[in-house]
Amino acid sequence: MSEQEFDVQQTHSIERWDRNKLIVQSAGRGWSTLYAAVATVNSWSGILKPTGHYCIGFCLRGPAQLSVRLANQPDAQESTLSPRRFLIIPADEASQWSRRGSSEMLMLYLKRELIDSVNKDVFGRSRVNLVIRLGATDPLLEQLALAVLEALQNPTLATTPVFVETLAYAFAAQLLKAHSVDAEQDPPTLACYENFRSNMARVQDFIDRSLGEDLSLEIIANQANISVCGLKRLFQRHHGTSPHQYLLERRIAKAARFLTETELPIAEVALETGFSSQSHFATAFKKKIGLSPKAYREARGSELSMNHDAFSVQQALA
Q1: Cβ atoms 30, 123 nearer than 8 A
Q2: For residue 96, how far is the Cα from the chain centroid?
Q3: How far apart are alpha carbons 290 and 138 in whole angstroms?
Q4: Per-residue model confidence as pLDDT tens digits over 165-218
Q5: Which of 67, 169, 264, 317 has the highest Cβ tally under 10 A?
Q6: pLDDT in tens, 49-65
Q7: What do you get for the CA distance between the two ends of the chain, in Å?
Q8: 84, 317 in Cβ contact below 8 A?
Q9: Cα separations (Å) of 10 from 32, 110, 236, 238, 279?
Q10: Cβ neighbours of residue 231 under 8 Å, at least 6 residues apart?
């Protein structure tokens, strides 16, 4: 899969229209399989041309009345898009839209290469056939969307390639599992998907609970009941990185939280997150974040004290 950033030019750029107001976007973050933006989207009507990539729009605040008609369908769908509900914009078909009302929206575009890869590798399907939703709910997609939203808000903490690619992969898998025309007709591949998700969830939970310990690949592999070689292939195929790099990313993310949310000495933060020494921690942290642990703590402390009006996940659900 391409490492090149998912360019806004490959999207509908709805958040950049003159009538709308862009709040935050992922452009410039280096995200390769997912593009995300938060914007205030106002009333409009018109045709959206196909981009080749699926778009999922989550309503964060403010309801709107929507109507959509696909180019190959005679009748339009109509629904109220209220907070915590989502829509799907088709990838390969033009669609006629009408919106009445202003909403704060999280727009997520998933790279077509990712959708095709998950569809083939996890579900064994050769053709993507998503249902075009309008005002639907999905608790898992909601949680994944909020994780993307948090990543947009905290560019230093959680937007590393491993973290975002993991979210994008999980997003694609849930879309194809729960919102595909073929889902109910394919129980064997769903069982395969559930087994994969269970194993990966177990491994990721184990890693997060054991970040302060000396974790070998053998110990991690045992959590998924696979060999070390199998573990490496699993992470490379589904996360695009090695288990070692994934573990390092998680340790850095936890250390960053300690630095901003606690007053633990830096040496103790290093110990709590599994680094062999303070110098090893400082080197790894600066390489990933761009600041030393001390400078990061000071910068984040100053930012948090000044930024009382920052958009937050809690506000999004208010």
Answers
A1: no
A2: 27
A3: 37
A4: 889 999 999 999 888 877 545 454 445 545 556 677 778 888 889 999 988 988
A5: 169
A6: 999 999 999 999 998 99
A7: 37
A8: yes
A9: 12, 11, 26, 23, 42
A10: 203, 217, 220, 221, 224, 243
CB 153 within 8 A of CB 29: no
- C-alpha torsion angle, residues 189, 194, 196, 198 (rounded to 10): -170
Tokens of 45: 């009507």
List the beta bridge partners of residue 58.
86, 106
Q: Which two tokens stand for residue 13?
A: 């750029």
Both structure tokens of 117: 């890869």
Give the number of other CB atoms < 10 A from CB of residue 123.
21
The structure tokens listed for 69 are: 């008609």
Helices (H), the chain: 112-121, 139-153, 161-178, 187-209, 217-224, 228-239, 243-261, 266-272, 278-289, 293-306, 313-316
Q: Report the length, in residues, of the chain.
A: 318
* Rounded distance between C-alpha atoms, residue 116 and residue 310, angstroms: 36
Number of H helices, E strands in the chain: 11, 10
Phi, psi (deg, nearest 5) at residue 141: -60, -35
Q: Encode 266-293: b = buried (16+ Cβ within 10 Å), e = exposed.
A: beebbbbbbbeebeebbebbeebbebeb
The rounded distance, in Å, linking the Cα atoms of 261 and 252 is 14
For the segment 74-95, what is each residue's pLDDT rounded down to a tens digit?
A: 788 888 889 999 999 989 999 9
- Is residue 315 predicted with pLDDT exceeding 50? no
Two tokens, residue 271 = 């110990």
Q: d(Cα 125, Cα 130) in Å, to the nearest integer?
A: 12
CA distance 69 to 61: 24
| Helix axes 161-178 and 228-239, enclosed angle (nearest 10) | 80
Contact 88/133 with Cβ under 8 angstroms? yes
